[in-house]
Structures
1.
Amino acid sequence: MKRQRVIGMFDSGVGGLTVMKEILDRLMDVRIVYFGDTARVPYGNRSREELIRFGEESIAFLIAQGAEVIVVACNSSSATALPFLREQFDIPMLGMIEPGARLAVKKTIAGRIGLIATETTVRSKAYASGVSRALAKGILPEDLVLRKAWQQGEQDIALVKAQGCPLFVPLVEAGLANSAQARGIAQTYLKPLKEAGVDALILGCTHYPFLEPVIRELLGEDVLIIDPARAVVKELEILLQHMEEWEQSGLIVSPASSVVGKNYSRSHYFVSGDPGLFRDVGNTLLQEPIDLVEQVILGE
Ligand code: DGL
C-alpha cells in the first residue's frame, strides 16, 4: 500500500486552511501537519527579516513532526522569505506566488490582472514579477483571442493593479468573514480594481478565499477570481509523483519510520496562540469539525 506522505504547512493563522482544504479534497495519499502562528498574526505588515525568522522556526518544527514537503501557505512569507528558506532547509518547498501568477496568466481573457493582498505582499511586487516570469517561460493564456493578440504585440498581459487590504485578515481571524463590516470594507478595497478594469483578480492572501462570497457579490460575474491554492495543489501533486520516482531510484531516502509513523489523523493542527479560538473560527470557516489543536510556543 502506498504510504501517505506528510505535508507540513504554515500560515500566520487560519488563512492556510483554505490551502489545506484544497489539498485534502484533491489528494488522498497525504496527511497534513498545520501550524498557525496565531500568537504573531498578522504577518502582512512584518519585515522580511521577521518573516524569515518565523519561517525558519515553523519549518524546523514541522520537520520535527515528520513533514516531508513544506507548503508555505502564506503569501506574505512566500513573497519575501521563501528564497532564503529554500537555501536553509533540505526539503522540497512550495509557495503561493509562482503557481498563483501562472494560473492568472493562463486564465485572464483581457490581460488585465488585478491583485488583492497584504501590504507586505503588495510592496514586494512578487506577483508582478511572477506574471512576467510566467510569460518569459512561455506560459500563455488559454483564451485564443488574447493569446494571438499578445503574440502579435497588440495586447499586453500584466498585473495592472495591486491593492493592499490590511483589514481583511483581522476580520477573518475574528470570524467576521461574512459580516456587514467585511462587505463595507471590501467595497472600498475593490473600487480601485473595478476602476482599473481588471478581468482576473488574484486572491493574494490565503485568508481571502474565506471572503470570496462577499468579493464575488461586489465584483459581479465578469471578473474571474483566481485562488492560487488550486494551482498549488496541482504543483504539489506533480512534486509528490517526482518524490516517489526519486525514492524508487534511490535519489532521496524516505524519512525514518519513527518520524513518519507519528500517530496523526489526516490533519493535525498546532497554533502558537489560543487553540480554542482557532478551533472555533476554523470550524465556522471550513464548516467541518477541527479537532486535535495543540498549542506550541516557537521562538522566544
Ligand atoms: N495568510 C497570509 C498571507 O497569505 C498572512 C496574512 C497576515 O497574517 O497578514 O499573506
2.
Amino acid sequence: MSLVVQKFGGSSVADAASVKRVAKRIASYRKAGHDVVVVVSAMGDQTDDLIDLAQEVSPVPPPRELDMLLTAGERISMAVLAMAIANLGESAQSFTGSQAGVITDESHGRARIIDVTPGRIRSALDDGHVAIVAGFQGVSQTTKNITTLGRGGSDTTAVALAAALDADVCEIYSDVDGVFTADPRIVPSARKIDKIGYEEMMEMAASGAKILMLRCVEYARRSGVPIHVRSSFSKHSGTWVTDGEIPEPFRTASTKDSTMEQPIISGVAHDRSEAKLTIVGVPDVPGKAAEIFSIISEQEINIDMIVQNISTRDPGRTDISFTLPMTDGAKAIEALESRKDSIGFDHIRYDDQIGKLSVVGDGMRSNPGVTATLFRALSDEHVNIDLISTSEIRISVVTRAEDLDRAVTAAHSAYGLDSDETQAIVYGGTGR
Ligand code: ASP
Ligand code: MG
C-alpha cells in the first residue's frame, strides 16, 4: 500500500462543483487502496479577496492579523472538501497547518518551515481517514502565532508533509497537464515534459516558470520526495520531478519510454517581472561593489544578473547593472540615492521594459555549442541581447520586453523542442 500526498490549487477547488470533482478523485484513490493526505489551497482567488478586504480596513494591516485572516481561506476549503468526501462514503478529517504539525519560524507573510511533526495526520490515516490539511500555513515555534508561508505556499506544505510522512509521491494538481518545454500561451507547440531532475526544475522555477514554487522544489530535492505535477481536470500522466526512477506503482507506458532519450535542453522559461537598474559612473576602486550590494541586501532585495563595464562617461569609472524584481525598483533607487555621495556615482538609469529568457538543460554540461545555437536563433529573429548570465545548466539573456515572445519561440524551435501536435490544454482557472 502506498501513501500519496495530493495538493489541489485554488483553481481546482474554485467552487462547489470543483470541490465535488476533486472529492471523487480522492475517493477513487482511497478505493484503490492508497493512503491519502490532501493539501488544499483557498478556493479560487479567495486569498486575493481577503487581502483586498484587509486593505479596505487598514492600509498597512498588522502582519499577525493578516496571517490570521489569510489562513481562513484554506480552512474553508479543507472543511468543505472533507464534507464532500464524506458525502461519497469515505471518511475524511480536516486539519489546520498547526494541527498537522507544520512548525515555522516566527516571520509573518513568508515563514519558513523548520519542522513537521505529523502525529495527528498519522493517527488519522491509521484510523482509516483521508487527512485534509490546510496549505500555506503553520505555527511559529517561538511565538505560537499562526504564520503563512508566502504566496503559492501550499506546494511547500505538500512537499514538507510528504517528506515528513515518507510518502511515495507528492502529487501537485493544477489546471494544466504538467510542466511544458515553454509557456504554451506563447509557444503553442510546446510539449509536456515527462520527467525532469530537481536541479533543472529549480532553474526553471527560478527563471520564471510559475508552475512550481522554487522553495517547494528545493525542499523536494533536499528530502528526495518525487513530485508529480498534473492536472486535476484530466487523468493524463503529468511531469515527474525526480532524480531517480518513477516509483513502480505509478509507471505507465509513456513514462517508461520517456526515460530513454534525454534532450540536451529541457525547456525555455521566461520572466517579465524584472527590471534593470544601472548605476552610472561608479568610482573604479575596491569596495564600491561591496557597498552597493550591501545597501541592496539591507533592503532584502533579491538581485539576479550583474554586469560591470568601463563607464560610458569616464574611463576611471565603471557602470554597474543588475536585474531585480520590478516591484522592488522604487525601493532600490531610493536606498541607493540616499547614499549617492558616499558611493560617489553619477546617476541611476532604470528600465522596466525588459524580458528575461532562460534555456535550461542538464545536457549543457557535456554538449558544446548550446550557447551558439541560442545566439544564432536570436540573431535570426533580430533580437538584441542586453545582459547574459549562465550557470552550469542554464543560459539567461535579457532582451527588450517586446521581443521576448519572439525570442522564446525562436529558442524553442532552435533546440528542436517543437511538437507536431498541440499538447497543451489549459483546463480552467486563472492560474494558481
Ligand atoms: N492560497 C494561497 C495563495 O493564493 C496559497 C496557495 O495558493 O498555495 O497564495
Ligand atoms: Mg492560490
3.
Amino acid sequence: MEIHPDCERILLSEGDIRKRVVELGRQISLDYAGKELMAVGILKGAMIFLADLVRNITVPTRLDFMAVSSYGLSAYSSGEVRILKDLDQSVEGCHVLIVEDIVDTGLTLNYLLGNLKSRGPASVKLCALLDKPSRRVLPVEIDYNGFTIPDEFVVGYGLDYNERYRNLPQIMVLSPRVYKKGE
Ligand code: 5GP
C-alpha cells in the first residue's frame, strides 16, 4: 500500500476502520432501538468518522456539530476548553451521542460531557474512534470505543497536523521530523 512520505507507518488501514465502524454502528443501533438519536460531531477531527458512522446507524438520527479549542495542560494548568461553535439545536430531552475523533488527556471530553449534561438531555453517551489511555489526565467513560492506540501522534481519517492530512483514508503515525520542522 502507498504510504504518505510524512508518515512513519500505517496504524489502521481503511479495511480495519471500515470493519470497526460497521460494528460500532450495529451496536449503537441495537442500544438505541426505539429511540431517536442526536449525534453531536466534534469539529473538525470527527467529521469523517461521523459521516461513516451515521450511515451504519439504523435508528432515526439527527446531526449537530460543536467546535472547541483545548489549550491542554502545557498552556494552562486548568486545561481550559473554549466553545468556538455551539449546537444549532436544543438537546433538552434528547438522547445525545457525542462523536469524537480521539480521547487523549480527557480534558476536552470531560468538559463537553459536563456541558451537554447540564442542558437537560434524556441521556449523554460518548463514541470515540480512538482512545490513547496512556496520556489520560481526567477520567472519561467511553461508551463506544473504536480502537485503543499507543502514545503516538496520529493523522488521517479526519485527524490533522496543522490542518493537513485529514483526507488520508488510513490512520497513520506522523514522522517526528514533521513536527520538528514546524517548531
Ligand atoms: P484531549 O482533551 O483528550 O487531550 O484532546 C483531544 C483532542 O486532542 C483531539 O480531539 C485531537 O484534536 C487532539 N489530539 C490528541 N491526540 C492526537 C493525535 O494523536 N493526533 C491528532 N491529530 N490529534 C490529537
